[in-house]
Amino acid sequence: MTWADRLSPQVRSLPPSGIRRFFDIVAEMKGVVSLGVGEPDFVTPWHIRESCVYGLQQGYTAYTSNYGLLELRHEITKLFERQYGVSYDHRREALVTVGVSEALDLAMRAILTPGDEVLIPEPCYVSYTACVSLAGGVPVTVPTLMENEFRVTVEQLEALVTPRTKALLIGYPNNPTGAIMPKEELASIADFAKKHDLIVISDEIYGDLTYSGTHTCFSSLPDMRDRTILLNGFSKAYAMTGWRIGYALSNPDFIAAMNKIHQYTMLCAPVTAQIAAIEALKNGQCAKEQMLREYNRRRRLMVDGLKKIGLSCFEPKGAFYIFPSIKETGLTSLEFAEELLKKEKVAIVPGDAFGTSGEGFVRCSYASSTANLTEALTRIERFVKNYL
Ligand code: PLP
Question: What is the domain count for the chain?
Answer without folding.
Answer: 2
